[in-house]
Design goal:
The protein has about 210 residues and is mainly α. The protein has one domain. Helices cover about 80% and strands about 0% of the residues. The protein contains 13 helices and no strands. About 25% of the residues are buried. Residues about 1-10 have low confidence and may be disordered.
Length: about 210
């Protein structure tokens, strides 16, 4: 174990990785992804605040949502969304969780459901792998993610977990190319980190 750690973090290996990431333009991709993530977060917060001031009372809207629909229904819908292309931004559900009696517990449930949704997408991808026509069709649709996943492996799964890159699509791509499932599970744990960071901002607003 200790030998493996020394090997992983050895100057020579880190130098090789640094060169590889430069050649494959990983740093440029990381920079653009970070810029996009920060921009989306700022726009989201500004939009919510603007709508709150000039058009809608989001606090009342969220309270009505909490009182009108049972949590199980919202959780089920969220799981479906996170399993199928991330149809609804998780930030909306985090805002909903802010109005519940136990917001941090609800956040943990949401993060866990997002994590499970990614696993479901991975399983779907690995199943589609056995159907050539469907596999080829899906591969063409998410070719960009597959290329990046093959170039950068777990680091790209990490980016899918914490950045605006759709986590479900990265998970689907991971299943399609048979990316190591244990490694996928470990890198995807960073999904929890994204929910915590966003909650620190959104809970402060609502």
């Amino acid at each position: 174990m200790i030998k493996n750690l020394f090997y992983i973090f050895s100057p020579r290996r880190l130098s090789v990785l640094n060169r590889y990431y430069r050649i494959t333009r990983f740093y440029s991709f990381l920079k653009s992804t970070a810029y996009k993530g920060i921009s989306i977060a700022v726009i989201f917060v500004a939009l919510i605040i603007g709508l709150e001031i000039f058009l809608l009372d989001f606090n009342s809207l969220l309270k009505n949502l909490v009182s009108s629909y049972p949590p199980k229904l919202i959780y089920t819908f969220f799981l479906a969304s996170e399993s199928i292309l991330g149809l609804v931004p998780p930030e909306m559900f985090i805002a909903w969780a802010a109005k519940l009696e136990s917001p941090w517990l609800s956040l943990f449930i949401l993060a866990s459901l997002s994590y499970l949704g990614g696993i479901f997408a991975y399983v779907v991808g690995s199943t589609l792998f056995m159907i050539p026509t469907v596999k080829n069709y899906i591969e063409n649709k998410i070719q960009k993610h597959i290329i990046n996943l093959r170039k950068w492996g777990g680091i790209f799964v990490f980016l899918g977990a914490v950045s605006p890159i759709p986590h479900s699509l990265v998970s689907l791509a991971s299943g399609l190319i048979k990316y190591n499932f244990k490694h996928y599970l470990l890198w995807s744990l960073f999904r929890y980190l994204r929910f915590i960071v966003y909650a620190l901002v959104i809970f402060g607003i609502f």
